[in-house]
Amino acid sequence: MTPSPTEASERAAGPPPALGIGMVGYAFMGAAHSQGWRTAGHVFDLPLRPVLAAVCGRDETSVRAAAAKHGWAAAETDWRRLIARDDVQVVDICTPGDSHAEIAIAALEAGKHVLCEKPLANSVAEAEEMVRAAEAGRARGQLSMVGFNYRRVPAVSYARKLIEDGRIGTLRHVRVTYLQDWLADPLAPLTWRLKRERAGSGALGDLGAHIVDLAQFLTGEPLAGVSALAETFVRERPVLGGPSAGLTGAAGSAYGPVTVDDAAVFTGRLASGALATFEATRMASGRKNALTLEINGERGSLSFDLERLNELSFHDHAEPAASAGFRRILVTEPEHPYLEAWWPPGHGLGYEHTFVHQARDLVTAIATGTDPAPSFADGLQVQRVLAAVEESAAKNAVYTPVPPPSETPA
Ligand code: SOE
């Protein structure tokens, strides 16, 4: 049967050009990113086709198994070989924070685009180096992005639009918490996330980075200063692979020091003068992944809970008091961010879809030569807030200014 003009043009067009992805790291974030790269081209009409070219990890047996499980065509055990591959145009960094700067800078210098998991780095100094490398790469047409994936929950993106459209008016308060409980058990082992030299900080960098980024993304304003308290409640934990320690810490058990915070609570002032409160902890027993936010403005309020991520609550202060109240917006309409590509209204999305949206947005940015967000400079701004939080906490909550966003750091 003769194909229609449309079918003929589509066949003539063929699949979009390939965009080779190389990923370093294959644990939780590696699995989440792999799913995003695999799925994005099957849901969105992308101008480039992500190809899972190679995944890298130190242990050859494990990384080969990860490649087979997550759909990567090849496995590497040295990230330097991965970033040198001709079939890799994008390097996706899903490793602990102590390797972000080295890998990202080398990948940019090797001519690659870079996606780097959050937090961008383990220090402001490293983040500044990464911004300089990103600026230099940009001049060569290379793009870079940091993986604050919660911006890409449709309800969060839609909240940003409502705020930009003035629907809640002048901002007064931002209230963000990120509560988990996987460290509530004092016998939870001493993993890399509990060691400063690997993770940079504890709940602050792991969870606090997300809520600082969200506060700045949603309001469009940087934090100008913070007052903070932080605590390490469990100062020693069983060493992974050490002699098994019974509940009594029986003789012969090996314990090691926890060198990061278990929890950080802090207040902040945004550039406009609006006030903000933040809580980040991995000790809130019963809270599994409870990222909640509420933004109060002169004309109304918005609130969101990651554990109900298809919903956004909106209060319009202009409503007559008798009938006023927060109303639930089910963020599943085709008019909502990203939703036109998914299911009919009411068929919700999940955590994993934020990584599909992240892949879609980076591929689109690369194809159109536009700067993806959040940028490494956005990641540096978060790093500066985290450093001010740690400085304030060390001085028992003395108000500590945050340097304003600057151009490429000197
Ligand atoms: C911490 O447990 C963690 O895995 C974070 O590192 C991620 O960024 C967050 O999305 C889920 O929780």
TrEMBL record:
Residues 158-302 form the GFO/IDH/MocA-like oxidoreductase domain. PANTHER family: BCDNA.GH03377. This is Gfo/Idh/MocA family oxidoreductase. Keywords: Oxidoreductase. GO terms for molecular function: nucleotide binding; oxidoreductase activity. It comes from Streptomyces corynorhini. Pfam families: GFO_IDH_MocA (PF01408), GFO_IDH_MocA_C3 (PF22725). The keyword Transmembrane does not apply. It comes from the Bacteria. Residues 20-136 form the Gfo/Idh/MocA-like oxidoreductase N-terminal domain. The keyword Oxidoreductase applies.
